[in-house]
Known about the structure:
The complex is a heterodimer of chains A (312) and B (254).
Chain A: H1 3-42, H2 44-60, H3 68-79, H4 91-124, H5 126-141, H6 148-155, H7 159-183, H8 187-195, H9 200-236, H10 244-253, H11 257-286, H12 292-311
Chain B: E1 2-11, E2 14-24, E3 29-33, H1 40-47, E4 55-60, E5 63-64, E6 72-75, H2 79-82, H3 89-94, H4 104-117, H5 133-145, E7 151-155, H6 163-180, E8 183-188, H7 191-197, E9 200-204, E10 212-217, H8 226-231, H9 233-247
Parallel strand pairs in B: 3-8, 3-9, 6-7, 7-8
Antiparallel strand pairs in B: 1-2, 1-4, 4-5, 9-10
Amino acid sequence: MSGAPTHESRRPTDHGAAARTAHLVGETAARTARLARGALLRRLVLVLALTAWQLGARAHGSVYFPPPARIARHAYDLWFSGPVGHAFLTPAAVDTILPSLGRMAAGFVLAAVVGVGLGILVGRSPRAYALCDPVLQFARALPPPTLVPVFVVVFDFGTPMQLASIVFSAIWPVLINTAEGARDTDPLRLDVAAVLRLTAVERLWFLLLPSALPRIFAGLRLSLSLCLILMVFSELLPGTANGIGFALTDAQSRSDLLTVWAVLVLLGALGYLLNTGLLAIEKRLTGKRSHERRSKGSHKSSRTESRKGRST
Amino acid sequence: MLRLDSLSQHYGDQPVLHDLSLTVPDGQLLCVVGPSGCGKSTLLRTVAGLLPAREGTITIDDTPVTGVPDRLAVVFQDYGRSLLPWLTVRDNVALPLRRQGLRRAERRAEADRILDRVGLTGAARRHPGQLSGGMQQRVAIARALVCRPSLLLMDEPFGSLDAQTREDLEDLLLEVHRTDRTTIVFVTHDIDESVYVGDRVVVLTPGPGAKVALDLPVELPCPRDQIGTRGLPEFVALRTRVGRAVRTPGRAQV
Ligand SMILES: Nc1ncnc2c1ncn2[C@@H]1O[C@H](COP(=O)(O)OP(=O)(O)OP(=O)(O)O)[C@@H](O)[C@H]1O
Ligand SMILES: [Mg+2]
């Protein structure tokens, strides 16, 4: 007897649940559609440009300007049709993309670590800042690729020369931005650190780095794009046996325009992905202080309040 | 005991404090009042060892102050800037405990205990930017109290809060002072507050070259309360004297 009523009473709820599920599915579908439409709209210009390119190239039929679908297909065949175990990378990709990325990563990390370290030192000492500022402005003003011939002479061709080119070009934006960020540390917070008697390391970790972080990331983004440029540029020179830049000159010497285009698309995609990754890291590290601005605002209003209070 | 001996302070060649002498016995809550810009913050920064004294000496228990003294805590006026917005409330409060070699769990437990005391039990895991002004100032007070200071300096700590929050925090301060017997130097521009909170009120002359214009013991019955104490005739008499000294420092000199 006890089973029947439960069964009876469950049925309508089941119906309700089914209806709710259906409703949910409908809603999710609608949301997905909305999101897809939003994403499409935001990339409208890109989609239009690609379509125009595709149609124009197809209509014209020039060997110099292959349609994007063929370029994509070619890039896929060249690099991304490998076995699952190699993350779909072909041997050619392992030979082309990985060495370049490796050099770029090494150069970027080196530039970032040294740049942030020196930047904090320079930014925290007014005398060092005054002394270094002209040098930094000069170094920043040099067009980075012009340094490469110097390193070719110093290091001869090969990875050391490429690394040196990347590091010496990419270090300035991080260094300068970090120095300015460290210099702008709120003096009241420095007093707080002194009163709390933080050690130098604690002060660096809890105060200097976090308050310079937005500036550091502004510098890192600039450095990252410089790294990409210098990575390719240094690989265009003789003496390189692998890498994306090498693939580019190699294809060009064989008049293989399709591969040249594929390399360009690959570079664009790499730059975009790396920048997106850096932005994600930045958001993770600084996200918690999205409220900081609010607290500054309240501080400002509290200031005016205290003025009012004082005059009475 | 905190002693200032003919202390003078300048910024560049602009004098701020001139020949200022003051003795604060242990456990006293001294209020310092003075017109805006007379050098109250400068005085606190000098006592905190953040600014070297130009002339004269500061001693705490007969030890001259050269750097930031041991067991000193400061509550700054700008709570929004004095807290670290990238740390949680609990981590902000636990920061001073790192020097004491406590383990992480102990530091957190201690921070939570003190947050309880200032009435912020639920806020430990939030970030300062998510709190109201009064709550942020409570966090700053908790951070100052967490390492049990023997000397607490407060620079217009409640200056920018609304009346209700301000009265609550004044009572919190009195309660902390009653139980811990900490020596407190409390700077304020609010005459009523100085008389309500203080065991003693010192009025500074307007700068440049501020010195003590009035040194007044406050003998009001001790568990003070916001309504009763402020209605006492003694309270009114004291605030009138302090008020006169602030307005016309020349005539009120004692
Ligand atoms: N860093 C500084 N450099 C130069 N002059 C300063 C500096 N800080 C303060 N002063 C000057 O010293 C004097 C005293 O400043 P101080 O901040 O100590 O005053 P205060 O009594 O705390 O004022 P308020 O009540 O407005 O906070 C002021 O005239 C001010 O202009
Ligand atoms: Mg001040």
